[in-house]
Amino acid sequence: MSDISPQVAPARVRTRFAPSPTGQLHIGGARTALFNFLYSRHTGGDFLLRVEDTDRERSTDAFTQGILDSLAWLGLTPDEPPVFQSTRAARHAEVAHEMLAAGKAYYCYCTPEELRQMREQAVAEGRSPRYDGRWRDRDPAEAPAGVKPSIRLKAPRDGETVVDDLVQGPVRVANAELDDMIILRGDGTPTYLHAVVVDDHDMAITHVIRGDDHLTNTFRQVQVFQAMGWPLPRFAHIPLIHGADGSKLSKRHGAVSVMEFDAQGYLPEAVCNYLMRLGWSHGDLEVVDRDEAIRLFDIVDVNRGASRMDYAKLTNLNGVYIRKADDDRLTKDVLRRLIHQHDLSVGSIAADRIRTLMPHLKERAKSMLELAQAAAFLARVVPLPMEPKAAAILTPEARLLLRDVAADLAATDFTVPALDAALRAFAERTGRKLGQVAQPLRAALTGSTVSPGIDATLAALGKDEALARIADASR
RNA sequence: GUCCCGUUCGUCUAGUGGCCUAGGACACCAGCCUUUCACGUUGGUAACACGGGUUCGAACCCCGUACGGGACGCCA
């Protein structure tokens, strides 16, 4: 490993996203991953993934897979195979013992029960619940029998520890506020704060970008880096995302896990764009695609204040991205949703109709759920299910009108311009406004009162199907 | 309780001492467009948390207060 510190000769930027697989990847974690990804790409560096699965009680393989899937969905695939923290326990212990040998750490023979009492007493006396350092300078010869000691960092007691954070600026705390944290448990396993430092060092991470709930823990991590004489990475603590009411984001605020956003019909690029704009901006830019994001994103431009999740704005952006999306891709997604969520069997004829009408369908959808809903009529067969509003349109007079217009349509080429011309001619000949002709047709053709332009809808259905539906509705 | 961080329209934000009568976006309201619904378009309502300084001048700098968030585990 190079002994040139990054400050002297900037190393290639390496960032990492380090989730623990104790739940699905949620939207806050997704943004953290995004910022890590964007920063690494912006600087031409690497984006890595480390799975912090050392909490064997709560970590599961299913969650690990879920996180991997979610990242893939978002397009945030790491550049190297993921590192699993649980596989590195021996290395964490090794470093702890190195610190012990160097006099930077010491054995502590306190029992968990003893520590609990220490904390309770401190709180009762109005002091901070900190370890009092009782084994810091005590002779291990006095160790009680039968207690497996933990290893604690021998943290500096005077002066202050400073984190020069790329987002928060310089943040300092008096060392007297920090206690000697445990780096290796009595059973020989590492604690989180220690493992993170060892892994970040060994993975040559240059920039630690994470949620600001880790900010105050960073002081202790810095002390471990310093004890080992390792160069410090740069830190960037980004603010958390809150729910609409300002409290911690949770289930009751709506979708929180990335996979739920997929299920609710959000496009990954819309989610990424929305997430990026939460806490980051570039002038008045709102719609920023991946390439432009990489070009413009810099971690120092991230704001310090927490922001709230606004589903309305996400939905609006989703509409923007749906309109921009490729028609084949949208069709594929809609077909999938029709089969799985609407329980429709979609044959190739229906698929072709959906694909044909997609340029018009996507103009009026804000989510893939809406898009699938709006396309469903193309996959149905007569008799169509009628929405109440559509049924109300099909009055006896409307049915007569349908029979008349059907005759015209039967003699028309089913192309959009020809259909448009035929309908206009029919309306004029019968002294009606176009809308008076279009709405009954729409009801007959779609079973609803909302659809793309009636000419395009007719064309997508094709002459035989369109006439069959009109005939059925005008009976 | 102690320590750390934050605070511009309802929300996301622009703003780095004069360009601010505070700009944009979403949402909301009204109009236009129109073959329904969307899209688009025109206009409107709406914010510098509060109090002190510093300065010729403060949304911007400093200090307090209030409110919000986070951290204080042999969890991650």
Structural class: mainly alpha
Cα end-to-end separation? 82 Å
User: What average pLDDT do the residues reach?
Assistant: 91
Percent helix, as a range, is 40-55%
Please indicate the percent range of residues in DSSP E strands (runs of 2 or more): 5-15%
In total, the number of strands is 12
Biggest sheet: strand arrangement: 1-2-3
Query: If helices are DSSP runs of H or I spanning 4 or more residues, what is the number of helices?
Result: 19
The parts where pLDDT drops under 50 for at least 5 residues are 1-8
Radius of gyration: 31 Å
Shape: elongated
Main sheet overview: 3 strands, parallel
Summarize the structure.
With 475 residues, the protein is mainly alpha-helical. The protein has helices at 27-42, 61-74, 89-101, 112-124, 192-202, 215-228, 258-263, 268-277, 290-296, 311-324, 327-340, 348-361, 368-375, 388-393, 396-410, 416-429, 434-446, 454-461, 463-473; strands spanning 14-17, 46-51, 83-84, 105-108, 150-153, 160-165, 169-174, 182-184, 207-211, 234-238, 241-242, 307-308.
Brief descriptors of the model:
single chain; 475 residues; mainly alpha; three-stranded parallel sheet; three-stranded antiparallel sheet; 19 helices; 12 strands; 10% strand; disordered N terminus; RNA-binding
Could you please describe the fold and organization of this structure?
This protein is mainly α and 475 residues long. The protein has helices at residues 27-42, 61-74, 89-101, 112-124, 192-202, 215-228, 258-263, 268-277, 290-296, 311-324, 327-340, 348-361, 368-375, 388-393, 396-410, 416-429, 434-446, 454-461, 463-473, and strands at residues 14-17, 46-51, 83-84, 105-108, 150-153, 160-165, 169-174, 182-184, 207-211, 234-238, 241-242, 307-308. The strands form five sheets. The protein has a three-stranded parallel β-sheet with strand order 1-2-3. A three-stranded antiparallel β-sheet has the order 4-5-8. A two-stranded antiparallel ribbon has the order 6-7. Helix 6 links the parallel strand 9 and strand 10. Helix 1 (27-42) crosses helix 9 and helix 15 packs across helix 17. The radius of gyration is 31 Å and the shape is elongated. The chain starts with 13 loop residues before the first strand and ends with a helix. The protein binds one RNA strand of 76 nucleotides through helix 4, strand 7, helix 5, helix 6 and strand 12.
